[in-house]
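ARCHIVE CARD
Drawer: 12
Card no.: 0347
Subject: one protein chain, sequence and derived structure
Cross-reference: see card 0346
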Amino acid sequence: MTKQEKIKEEEGVRVPTPKRAAREAIAFMKAGADQERAASFQRYFKEPVEAYGVEYAALKARRKEVAARVRGTWTLSDALLYCEEMLKDPHLEPRGNAFQTVGDFVEEGGPDLLEHIHRWLASSCGNWGLVDNLVPSVLSPLLRKCPELVGEVVEWTLSPIIWVRRGSAVAFVSLMDDPVMMDAGYEVALRLQKDGADLIQKAVGWMLREAGKADRPRLEAFLLAQGPRTPRTTLRYAIERFPKEDRKRIMEATKA
């Protein structure tokens, strides 16, 4: 027993093993399932999704409680084991919870964690919601810590799997305050320019919108140069925070 585990035991806090924590988490979700709420989730997705329909506030409170119980005793390895157990359940809530839990330990991670992330995107997401849960929680902070991995993520733009490609764009959304990351983000935008999937076009537009917050002149110059070859969906997302007159000017100037 570690020192932290002994302290928590003395304080009456039972620290669950990763497998036990996963069983308890899924039991909690099943107990709070709501078929009507679960069915309502489908309107956000084109793909069929499975959900328990647990109330978000209850999920958040439960995750916070468990995080407090395992803090100081679990390691990244424990979080990964927990994640793999949770991913055996096909529903949205366990998978989202799993990714967020790994995110709690991402500061312990190194380059090896990227392989897990790629595998999860390729085989355990299946919709934009889980991509947009996993990537900001785990991938973006990992890139911040290990910038040498950026080139590999940029190469994900060539993946035949849409969720991997979307991940390559969403990864840089929160990183555009870093010049190196911004360069990589613009490279991703160029590589995905001909992607016909609307979920990719929207992700690229979202990323470019964030780039504009950090350096608007660069974004405007990029759009004016690349606009005729850029999907209109991407353009609209990229400039949605611009003043109305500027949005109109850029949309007119970039017509193919």
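Annotation on reverse: Confidence is low (pLDDT under 50) at residues 1-12. The first helix runs from residue 3 to 10.
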